[in-house]
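FIELD: query
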Amino acid sequence: MPLKPRGFPRNERLRARGDFQAAYSGKRLSGKLFILHYISAESLAGRKAAFTVSKKVSRLAVERNRLKRRLREVYRCNKNILPENILLIIRSLPRAAGAGFHEIREEVVSLFKSVASKERRH
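FIELD: result
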């Protein structure tokens, strides 16, 4: 029996320049480790997400890539908290480089719940 692919499916990736601009111009939530930019898009079918980790977070590509992998996993496991039809970008702050997986998960889930509650009101 073939394994079901896990990971971050292509149809959930935020890739178009216009989508990035829309998400950055939308609403913003801040935490200790991350800033979440999002916009609700009625024309969109499903959720789309992107994760950015700049060199200000860490000069080492290994650490930046590890942080992105952790963010993708937290998103994959908790995306059902988010409303449908949303574009979101999770931008890492410099102090996220030293954070453990559980700390990352706690903050991202908290941000997701905030987005869900704010979008439910509208």
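FIELD: remark
The domain at 11-121 is CATH 3.30.230.10 (Ribosomal Protein S5; domain 2).
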